[in-house]
Amino acid sequence: MASGGYPTLKGEECTRLLELCPADNQTTPIQCDLVNVSMDDVPGYEALSYAWGSPVRDQPIQCRSQGHAWTIYITKHLLSALYQLRSDKGYRRLWIDQLCINQDDLEERRLQVSQMDKIYRKAARTVIWLGEETVDTPLGLSLSVSLCSAADTWLPHTSYFEDDTPSVENGFSYYYSLPVSTSGAWAALDAILDRSWFTRYVCPCSTVATYAAYCP
Fold first, then answer.
1. For the chain, what is the domain count?
2. How far apart are the C-alpha atoms of 57 and 73, rounded to whole Å?
3. Are residues 80 and 160 in the same domain?
4. Residues 30 and 101 both lie in one domain
5. What is the DSSP secondary structure assignment for residue 207, as one 8-state letter?
6. Are residues 72 and 147 in the same domain?
7. What is the residue-level pLDDT of the chain in tens, covering all 216 positions?
8. Residues 94 and 166 in one domain
9. pTM of the complete model
10. Which residue among 52, 106, 111, 161 is least packed, with the fewest CB closer than 10 Å?
11. Contact (CB, 8 A) for 45 and 19
């Protein structure tokens, strides 16, 4: 048994997966199981991409592994993500760096970080946690969908080197039925893009082809 209750990983090609226990009541404390797996024969799982926020780990959750139970302390930002990700019907299998890596074992952290590209590539999908929803979040997300749709239509018919780069001012917004520049939707989108996930250094997630954003 490794430090802190974590089961020892046997080999560089091993990692842990977290099985998030279901609950039908949102106030039920978070509980999870940690399972050692080989990356050569790993079951289906989702990988979580998120910003730690404050590095202070002072939020307790209960974990179990190989018949042993102990308390792990995590960041407030991750705890809010777990409450949103938890199902009321069944276990949800996830890879989350803060929990699947023993943060108190420097050598394990070094080895697991070197495997993160492979871990994200093998995930069925990557779930992005942007943070708690605010009153303007749906407005900003709706605009982001409209912008993606407009870009899908516009990009195949233009060049990155042309001078007529689309903007709200030159009619692009009107042509694609986007809100005017004074609309609050743009401020709502800017607030989303200002969240810490977009400003942190992201390496492994750049290799992911599919993802889902939770806000929540």
1. 2
2. 5
3. no
4. yes
5. G
6. no
7. 445 678 889 888 899 999 999 999 989 999 999 999 999 889 999 999 998 888 899 999 999 998 889 999 999 999 999 999 999 999 999 999 999 999 999 999 999 999 999 999 999 999 999 888 889 989 989 988 888 887 777 655 555 445 555 555 545 554 567 777 778 889 999 988 888 888 774 545 444 444 454 544
8. no
9. 0.79
10. 161
11. no
